[in-house]
Every structure is written in C-alpha cells, then in structure tokens.
Amino acid sequence: SLNDPVGWQLSRINLPSLPRHPAMPAPTQRWHRIAARPPDSPPFSNTAPGVLVECPAPRGQHTQHLGCNPSTTKSDTIMHNASHHELRNAFHALLAGSSCHHTASVFDPLSARMAADLGFEVGILGGSVASLQVLGAPDITLITLSEFAEQVTRIGRVARLPVIADADHGYGNALNTMRTVVELERAGVAALTLEDTALPVRYNCNPSDLISIEEGMGKLRAALRARQDPSLAIIARTHAGMQPLADVVARVRAYEDAGADAICLVGVKDGELLHAIAENVCVPLMLVTYGNPALSDDHLLAELGVRIVVDGHAPYFAAIKATYERLREQRGLGVKEHLDATRLAAHYAGAETYVDWARDYMNVSE
Asked: Is the CB of residue 159 less than 8 Å from the CB of residue 87?
C-alpha cells in the first residue's frame, strides 16, 4: 500500500549526467523502488479510474500514483496478488457466504484487471462473449475448446479476482467434458459452468432441447473426476424457463446428487419460480438474470440461496458500440443516434447469415 510506511511505491528520479557512448541517448529517468509515500507528499489525485497521474514529491523526486485506488500500487495492477488456488478458495467463500454478488463481465486481460481494481468479487467470461471476441461469430457453439481455453488463459494469467468460465456443454460428451475441465483448470479459472443443453444443435432438432438427466449427471461426475484442484467449483447449469417446474426440480436435485458445487439457473422469470426451485436445493445458486427487474432484490435473492448473479455482458457490448462510434467519427461519418449495441454485434457477427445456413443445411428454423 502507498500509505503503508513499510510498503513500496514505484518512483521516477532524475539521473545525473553519466559518461556514455556517443550513440546512446542521454538517460533522463529510471524506474526504481523507494520507501513508501513520504508523509509530506501531496494527496492522491481524484482522477478517473485507472488514470496514472504524476504528483510532485519532495527532494526533486517525481512519483506516479494510481488515481483510482490509493491502496493500489503500479506493480499491484499488473502482478498477481493470489494464486489460482487462492482465488478458487475465495470463490468458495462467496458460495459459503450469506450475500449475493454480481459478476463483472470480463473478456480480456485489461477488463479482468479493471474489474478487480474496481472491487468486483467475481468475474465471468461468457460463452457468447468469447465467441464474439475470438471468432466474430454468434453464440451457436462454433468456438472450439482450444480457442476458448486460449482466451481464458490470457485472462487467468492476470486475474486478481475469481473468474467463472462459461464452458457451455463441456464441448462434447462426458469424456470431452473431462478434457475441458483439465484445460480450463490449467488456464486458471475459479469455477466453470456446464449446461445440459443438447449442443451443438442437431439436424432437425430444437436449439433449446436438453440432454437426459442421466447424461447430465454423467458429465458432472466426469468433470469432478477430471479436476485436480478440489477447490475448482463445478457448477451445473439448466434452463428453468424451458421446462415444467417438476422437471426443473428433478434436474437440479439430480445434479446436486451428482456432486455439483452449485446450480446455475437461466430463464427464471420471477421470484415465485425461483422460490419454488430454491426450496428443493441445498447447494448455492447462481442466477443469470440479464437485468430482469423482477429479480433485482439482492436481499430476497440471498435469502433464497443465490450467491452469484449474472446481469449480462453490458461492458463488452458497450466496448463494441464505442469502437464503432469512434471509427465512424474517424472517417468523418458522425455518430448514429439510438444505436443498439446488441443489434450492432449481431450484424457484424453475421447472425442472420448463420440463421439462413441453419435453416438450409440443418432444417433448424428457430
């Protein structure tokens, strides 16, 4: 900490003139470590988050501080503060707690660093986000495990908060799921979700079809067998909006019996449905709400056992929109009013073309 007298801070000092080869440029500055922030130095600057500002310091020294967080040094921002195992334990502590925590949508190393710096307790790399970021394609199971794992590895290398990986269907059957767990654990995730959707979509089938409960349990047991670090959380995911309540309850109970560390629910429309499901589950719940106002009461969610809430991936879509607007401005085209980021992403990902191909070649119309 910069306020800690025994801590460290990165500083820059002017170097005296030294003999050097004529071809070498004159050295004017050098980064080095000195003792913590002097008591007579000026207060930290209240700049925008993440902005480096140079503050005057006594004795001719010039020190740079992070404007976003006085307790964060320059080196803290780019170095690990915890091992992957410690981050996994931190995630388990969230699951074992009594509050619900909202995920930060992270999609690359910088966004992961930002999320940690801003105080988020947990991040998530969504499958849809990974498909857009890596392939420029919609979320229709086109991305491969190796491509997804590469992106996760980039994030895991710098993450200072637990990160959940949306591992889709485990990229295949139970044996493929084992390989998925091995690769994502090595990449540094704290948890991964495994869904029971029948993916990739099969010929003449509905994209929302689910695999059998037995197959889902087999995948979960395989995932648990494959993990090397017991602190890696395996989360079973199912779509509550596509099934009768009795079927949802049967699935979540079976997945809990198979050993899932938590249950992830998608498609819950209101608190009444959530309550009906939650009273049949003992493990913690993860809830994908996409900003549903009927599920915005954190206190109620926590009482029902929800520990992790995924609001969506607004930061990523905001980045897409900002990029498009700046490029238009650079070309002198001006900024479009009422530009919808989701439609913009769908357009450049070729979503309509893939829908046509699915209809023409797979007899899938939904």
From this structure: yes
